Amino acid sequence: MTDARLRHGRASLGLSFFVQGVTFALLVTRIPAIQDRYGISDGLLPVFLAAVPILAGAGSVVTEKVVARVRPRVVLRWAQPVVLLALLGVGAGSELWEAALAMGAFGLAVGALDASMNMMGVSLQRAYGRSIMLGFHAAYSLGGIAGASMAWAGAHWDLSLLVSYLPVVVVLLPAALVGSRWYVEGKHEDEGQAEERGKAGSVSFKLLMPLCLVMSFAYIGDSTVSNWSAKYLQDVLGSSEQLSTVPYNVYMVTTLLGRAVGDFGVRRFGAVAVVRFGSVLAAAGFGVVAMAGGAWVGMLGFTMLGFGLCVIVPQTFAAAGRLFPGASDTAIARLNIFNYVGFLVGSPLVGALGDAWSYRGAMLVPMVLVLAMLVYAKSFGAEPARYGGGHERPRTADVG
């Protein structure tokens, strides 16, 4: 495979990560507007919000089966337009059943999209022989910042959901379809597909479980920041309403910055050291948030969280690809499910503990879980799993 083709494939996949970041941010940051548009009650809203990650997990399971017959690039090529059209459907409907249908389609397609994007990222990283996964997730973070900014503008100017979403979809849908022409993977069809299919059943859940736990813990931490940072700053640390919106924006920016330089850290120090450093920094961030005496100290804690957590998820996908080099698509599809497990558990867990105990105390729970990732950090440098009598060893550069 030529260097030019790899570069084009890397750029097109980066575009897909960016588009997904924009799309997801536009949905989750306009939840209050969606609730108002469809008259969704406060009691029913958690059902809608929980349904999206549950269906996304189902979409990831289906993707595992589909990629046994077609390549991940085919799944990604068609899943991304469905996600964008589902977002447009959320903005265009008026009846409750229309919202349920659009968000259901969004959830299923997002699961397929997340799984196939990371499958291709791991495959390209293998072809490059060095760490590039964090760069893809940096593109996602950049898209998230762009999407959140557009959502803020829509809310500020009191634009309808359809008016907010339609120009984004009109621009990004054809861009994603055109970009998909240059999707490539680390192995050619004739070299890798038969091996990948033949060894799909070789993924050991016991070997994969440490990475699954790390994925869940990371997303518990992430969802805590996403859902509770504003409330914590305002209700616990006494900030103004305006200032309480700052921590999540700071968190997103630090996530972008950390991922933008994270690949260099992995190449220099190795994945295990980077994951350990990220775990300690994120745990320290939660500790600072829990003990903060004022809003500015709290924001320092959330800043530390962004730099710490940002490296974990991309490296978890990369580690699964290294651990099961002959069945990386299957491993990543299964690992991706625990993305949604963490998202589902994190916010309700912190909310329940905050109501029953205190929100300061509740912040200590994700702190402990994030710190527990140190126990599993060695899995990020594990040797590939054995397949019968064979043993495929990764390139040295690919590990670090």
Sheet/helix structural class: mainly alpha
| Proportion of residues in β-strands | under 5%
Q: Would you tell me the overall average pLDDT?
A: 88
Terminal residue distance: 22 Å
Helicity range: over 70%
Bulk shape: globular
Return residue spans where pLDDT drops below 50 for at least 5 consecutive residues: 188-200, 387-400
Q: What does the model show?
A:
The chain has 400 residues and is mostly helical. The chain has helices at 3-28, 31-38, 45-66, 72-92, 96-128, 133-156, 161-179, 189-198, 205-236, 241-244, 246-269, 271-291, 295-309, 312-323, 328-356, 359-362, 364-376, 396-399. The chain contains 18 helices and no strands. Helix 1 runs antiparallel to helix 5 (96-128) and helix 3 packs across helix 5 (96-128). The model is unreliable at 188-200 and 387-400 (pLDDT under 50). Keywords: Membrane, Transmembrane, Transmembrane helix. Pfam families: MFS_1.
